[in-house]
């Protein structure tokens, strides 16, 4: 099961390494990770998505995260009401006659073409995971040249 | 003040009286200040010895142990000692020198990323990049090391940070928003636990190192006597409950007593206090204590439900929670039938060994116990010597048994004995060693002699890495692969350092040799030539249920 975990931490060097170390020491991969400052520049937000094979190990990792001196709070969004979003940039190749078709697809999503040169367009999309997945499937017919994504961010109520 | 002066001033204000360490290029400014500092400095002969000595000092006194080493190899040599303290939750502060801030990351001479290396084996660590942060960091380090679940904290200080001259400001308060340990148990949980205890018929208290850390030995005794429950201890918990008390079952687990293991497997309620259900204690997990409800008291929430699932978790300091619990319990269970059963196991399966004309290690430890009136501080190395020391010496006071529990570090006992002796100069300190382990930090003989640290070392010399050999005998068809040792003449070796040495090859020489060692005002090595293939029994084979013991009993 995929878990979205947010961690409020002191904005100091080495904190990310401490957190990553808890996962790597147990052979856990972090699927996505997003880190940034909060309104208070002394505090950072870390939001990560992890695939937990064993819930007990994940529970242990959350407790270990809480034990880190630089960690202020740990929230697992998985069982909480929350919204999540991810921003992607995707480079596609298309021909002039495919342009309307591409635009039709983009209109179905929170997505837009932000730049194009010749037959290459860079598209930006912001949405939740399921929709991003469908958008990428729809764009597949044009040939995706490159994809970068920010990783998931989430917010509870 | 320079960074180095600030460090010394902060150590003074933290009440540090003694420090163990080794100089080097990246700590020269600090050592220059140590030259006339108002604290005792013990120059060890290896940085690992310094870390273990700080650890032994902390275990014997309850204070924070402090060690120092230079950058690179010096710092790296501390790591085994730091990992050892981490596994056993021992408060030490390790100070390391680092190359100049401008050189960090440049593969400078004697550079190692020691905060990176020690990240998984410290409770917390710091790289000080600015002298103005130094006082706050030292204050935090001592606070973090000694509170909550204690542990080692490392402070890495680059040379230029040691040299920079700034105004010294002592931070009066420590406030770390991400670190607020819970010290008192939740009243609702305490009520539930009290109810379970009242309903139980076969309760047992399983006490770990947390009893000793929090100084909860009085509260533990009070609770055990109030509810008339037998008490079994982990290796780390020995001394937390008097070993000679009628309710004591001694140690449980892989080399625990048969009666402790039977009792825990038959119990209907386990009250675990400051213990963590380690694999050496539980044996095969899925069949561990099948009839028992579990109350688990621990200051570290991450220890609870880590290995076994718990019915009533109580996060808090052992001393406080046991006090709360005793107060809450109005109705005590009737455990007379249960205690009779336990007593029958004690009679049926006592700890035993076949005495002989040869020197049996168990006999040696019994003799040390008698000669010291059970009042010595015993440290151990790791392996058979350690298990025999657990089984055959009875510890009646906390902080009198000092042993590497979690990490199982050979070479720990001798430097730890040194640290314990410095912390408790009035106590008699005995290291129970093996011929393998003692050679892992034998260089500390020079430290003992030159600083007049008078410790006694009983080498149970069987010419083998005994515990490994025992496993090879039992599980690897007696193929003794690289476990037979060529040893030096330990008597001459001790003498060459200026210590005393006694060789014992006959049983009747055992007690006189111990008496003689006690009468000599010097560090003494007693080289006991014991029965070479004696095994530690009882023993639970790895991965077996803990009541499936082999050797010398049912």
Explain what this protein looks like in three dimensions.
The complex is a heterodimer of chains A (157) and B (554). Chain A has 4 helices and 9 strands, in the order E-H-E-E-H-E-E-H-E-E-H-E-E. Chain A has helices spanning 15-24, 55-67, 99-107, 129-139, and strands at 2-10, 30-37, 43-51, 71-76, 82-93, 111-117, 120-127, 144-149, 153-156. In chain A, strand 6 and strand 7 (120-127) form a beta hairpin. The model of chain A has no long low-confidence stretch (mean pLDDT 92). Chain B folds into 3 domains: 3-163, Thiamin diphosphate (ThDP)-binding fold, Pyr/PP domains (Rossmann fold, 3-Layer(aba) Sandwich); 187-348, TPP-binding domain (Rossmann fold, 3-Layer(aba) Sandwich), CATH 3.40.50; 361-529, Rossmann fold (3-Layer(aba) Sandwich), CATH 3.40.50.970. In chain B, 36% of the residues lie in helices and 16% in strands. Chain B contains 21 helices and 18 strands. In chain B, helix 18 (445-450) links the parallel strand 15 (429-434) and strand 16 (456-461). Chain B starts with a helix and ends in a 25-residue tail after the last strand. The interface between A and B is medium-sized, with 19 and 17 residues.
């Amino acid at each position: 099961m995929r878990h979205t975990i947010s961690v409020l931490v002191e904005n100091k060097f080495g904190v990310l390494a401490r957190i990553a170390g808890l996962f790597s020491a147990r052979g856990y991969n972090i699927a996505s990770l997003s880190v940034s400052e909060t309104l208070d520049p002394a505090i950072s937000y870390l939001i990560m998505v992890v695939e937990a094979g064993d819930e007990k190990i994940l529970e242990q990792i959350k407790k270990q995260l809480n034990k880190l001196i630089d960690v202020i709070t740990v929230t697992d969004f998985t069982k909480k009401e929350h919204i999540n979003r991810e921003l992607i940039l995707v480079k596609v190749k298309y021909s002039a006659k495919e342009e309307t078709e591409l635009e039709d697809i983009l209109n179905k999503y929170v997505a837009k073409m932000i730049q194009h040169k010749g037959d290459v367009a860079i598209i930006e999309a912001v949405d939740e995971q399921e929709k991003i997945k469908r958008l990428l499937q729809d764009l597949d017919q044009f040939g995706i040249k490159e994809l970068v994504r920010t990783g998931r961010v989430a917010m509870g109520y | 003040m320079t960074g180095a002066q600030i460090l010394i001033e902060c150590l003074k204000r933290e009440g540090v009286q003694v420090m163990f360490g080794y100089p080097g290029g990246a700590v020269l400014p600090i050592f220059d200040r140590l030259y006339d500092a108002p604290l005792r400095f013990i120059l060890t002969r290896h940085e690992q010895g310094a870390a273990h000595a700080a650890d032994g000092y902390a275990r014997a006194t309850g204070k924070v142990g402090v060690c120092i080493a230079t950058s690179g190899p010096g710092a790296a040599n501390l790591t085994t000692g730091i990992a050892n303290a981490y596994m056993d939750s021992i408060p030490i502060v390790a100070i390391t020198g680092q190359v100049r801030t401008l050189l960090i990351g440049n593969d400078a001479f004697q550079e190692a990323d020691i905060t990176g290396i020690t990240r998984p084996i410290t409770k917390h660590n710091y790289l000080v990049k600015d002298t103005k942060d130094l006082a706050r960091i030292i204050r935090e380090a001592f606070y973090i090391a000694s509170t909550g679940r204690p542990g080692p904290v490392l402070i890495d200080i680059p040379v230029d940070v040691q040299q920079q001259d700034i105004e010294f400001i002592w931070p009066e308060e420590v406030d770390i928003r991400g670190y607020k340990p819970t010290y008192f148990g939740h009243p609702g949980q305490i009520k539930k636990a009290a109810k379970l205890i009242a309903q139980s018929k076969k309760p047992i208290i399983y006490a770990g190192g947390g009893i000793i850390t929090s100084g909860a030995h009085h509260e533990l005794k009070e609770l055990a006597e109030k509810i008339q429950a037998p008490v079994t201890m982990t290796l780390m918990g020995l001394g937390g409950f008097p070993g000679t008390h009628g309710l004591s079952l001694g140690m449980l687990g892989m080399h625990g007593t048969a009666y402790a293991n039977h009792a825990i497997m038959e119990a209907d309620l386990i009250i675990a206090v400051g213990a963590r259900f380690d694999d050496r204690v539980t044996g095969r997990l899925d069949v561990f204590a099948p009839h028992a409800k579990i109350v688990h008291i621990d200051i570290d929430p991450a220890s609870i439900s880590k290995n076994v699932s718990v019915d009533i978790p109580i996060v808090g300091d052992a001393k406080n929670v046991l006090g709360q619990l005793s107060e809450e319990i109005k109705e005590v269970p009737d455990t007379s039938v249960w205690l009779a059963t336990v007593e029958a196991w004690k009679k049926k399966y006592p700890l035993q060994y076949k005495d002989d004309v040869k020197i049996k290690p168990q006999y040696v430890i019994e003799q040390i116990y008698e000669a010291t009136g059970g009042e010595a501080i015993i440290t151990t190395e790791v392996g058979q010597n350690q298990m025999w020391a657990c089984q055959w010496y009875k510890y009646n006071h906390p902080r009198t048994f000092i042993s590497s529990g979690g990490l199982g570090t050979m070479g720990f006992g001798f430097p730890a004995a040194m640290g314990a002796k410095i912390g408790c100069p009035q106590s008699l300190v005995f290291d129970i060693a093996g011929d393998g382990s003692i050679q892992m930090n034998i260089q500390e003989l020079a430290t003992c002699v030159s600083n007049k640290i008078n410790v006694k070392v009983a080498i149970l010399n069987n010419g083998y890495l005994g515990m490994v050999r025992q496993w090879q005998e039992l599980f690897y068809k007696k193929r003794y692969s690289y476990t037979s040792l060529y040893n030096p003449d330990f008597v001459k070796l001790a003498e060459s350092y200026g210590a005393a040495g006694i060789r014992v090859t006959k049983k009747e020489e055992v007690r006189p040799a111990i008496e003689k060692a006690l009468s000599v005002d010097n560090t003494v090595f007693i080289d006991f030539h014991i029965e070479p293939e004696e095994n530690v029994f009882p023993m639970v084979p790895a991965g077996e249920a803990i009541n499936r013991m082999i050797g010398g009993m049912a």
